[in-house]
Amino acid sequence: MRHIRLLAATGTAVAALALTACGNGTGTEDEGAAGPTTPVASAGKAASGEAAAQTHRAAAGGRTANGTPVARTHAPGARPSASPAARGGQGGTRAGTSGGTGTSGGTGTSVVLCNGANTTVTAQPVTRPLNHMLITVKNTGGRTCELPYYPVLRFDRMQWVPQADRDTQPQAVVSLAPGESGYAGVLLSAADGSGTGGTTARGLTVGFQGLTPNSSGGPSATPSLPAKGVYYDSSLKVTYWQQEMDDALNW
């Protein structure tokens, strides 16, 4: 009996050694190694990684993996480039730019001067201010005309030209649309009698200046005077052309 138990114990020890050797080699169990990865877990991880890669590629192309559009946002500080027109640079259209020749009134045509050919001119003495006369020029043409400087007056055959009062020079050249009127005031004689060479005139010629001082602006006009004539002396003086009647008389 003792011999039988010894043999049984020896067999058990041999079997244990065999199992241990197998586990350290190609066996199915090793106490010191990490647990093996199952095929199902590996496949799951691979599928998850591939799905993430597809999602990244799809997002880069503007859509998710299932085809849903991806909402894009700009990175901080990044701004879309504006078009040249929006920037106001080359290639844009500038508001208010004229295609004309830059002439008076923005009409794209040459300046038309007011003169005896396209206006009617009247000369009428007034009661206030004393010893004054009002010259009125009405545009009867079809285009806007301008009245530079002041009228060039000549009573009868007088050999001198009355000068303009510099204080009456307007800030802009008088411009008359068709049907509009411009004005000039005339001081005929000194109210205190200080003038000399007084005489009565029966005729009047009104000359028009051009765009430069003392140049011709076109045909003159010969407005009628009252039947009794107009008295003037060496104090004779005129205003610059005015847009308003009051400006022509209040000096």
UniProtKB/TrEMBL annotation:
Domain DUF4232: start-end pairs: 114-242
Biased composition of type Low complexity is found at 41-68, 75-87
Q: Where is the composition biased (Gly residues)?
A: 88-105
- Region annotation (Disordered) maps to 28-105
Transmembrane annotation, as ranges: none
Q: Which Pfam families match?
A: DUF4232
Check the UniProt entry and state the signal peptide residues, or none: 1-23
The question of whether Nuclease is a record keyword is answered with: no
Instruction: For this UniProt record, give its keywords in alphabetical order, as a comma-separated list.
Output: Signal
Q: Which PROSITE patterns match?
A: PROKAR_LIPOPROTEIN
* Keyword presence, Signal: yes
What is this protein's name?
DUF4232 domain-containing protein
